[in-house]
Amino acid sequence: MITIEEIKANEQIRTYIKKADESMLALGYTEHSFAHVTKVSETSKEILLTLGYDAREAELAQIAGYLHDIGNVVNRVDHAQSGAIMAFRILDNLGADAEDIATIVTAIGNHDEGTAFPVNAVAAAVILADKTDVRRTRVRNRDFSTFDIHDRVNYAAHTSHTYITEDKKEIVLEINLDTSISSIMDYFEIFMERMMLCRRAAEKLGMQFALVINNQRVL
After folding, report:
1. Which of 78, 87, 144, 178 has its CA 20 to 30 A from that of 3?
2. Cα-based angle 17, 190, 154 (whole degrees, multiple of 5)
3. Residues 129 and 47 sit within 8 Å (Cβ to Cβ)
4. Which residue from 63, 141, 140 is spatially nearest to 100, judged by alpha carbons?
């Protein structure tokens, strides 16, 4: 069985992640490199483990989360589908089991809000982990006067925390947002589609999705 350790140690994969992020930097996007994919990977795993899924399914989510953005090396447009095809080839060449490949590729191909749907538990976990990664350290532009709305919203997020409630009925994204940098309306302008996708993903896992900004529940 393919493991997350093998995936992280694979130089081909590391190169694709690095080069994909270089493209994102050139296009003016926030960080999509090892910090992002590692966070998505670990959060995906923890979501499923917390909900009682078995360790193998959680590891498949971890692998899918780590690989989910490699398609950006091809183009930002349809990067989920490009990444799924790339992941299929990589995993097949590594001798991964067909069932595992199918689960991982499906999750990668269904993580971008333009075309995504939480078709299975692994896909739902990756969606939730990816769309809730809102943090100041993802902003690479150091010239505040040239910030676009994505820069402002991420930079305004002093802290963000995603957690599942003790009764396992809700998954909550809690953000401490500096409204002198970005308004709550700014957040909704760029993230509403993502939050609706998070709602569908949470429902796939038998939960509701909640968004709390500055200690006030807004979704």
Report:
1. 78
2. 60
3. yes
4. 63
pTM over 0.70: yes
Structural contact between residues 49 and 61, judged by C-beta atoms closer than 8 angstroms? no
* pLDDT tens track for 66-82: 999 999 999 999 999 99
- Structure confidence by residue, pLDDT tens digits, 93-141: 999 999 999 999 999 999 999 899 999 999 999 999 999 999 999 999 9
CB 138 within 8 A of CB 30: yes
Structural contact between residues 207 and 162, judged by C-beta atoms closer than 8 angstroms = no
H-run or E-run covering 171: strand 170-177
End-to-end CA distance of the chain: 40
With beta carbons less than 8 A apart as the criterion, state whether 169 and 208 touch: yes
User: Contact 192/183 with Cβ under 8 angstroms?
Assistant: no
Q: 65 phi and psi, to 5 degrees?
A: -65, -40
Give the number of other CB atoms < 10 A from CB of residue 124: 31
Residue 188: both structure tokens together: 């909704």
What are the b/e assignments for 176-200, b being 16+ CB within 10 Å? ebeeebbebebbbeebeebbebbbe
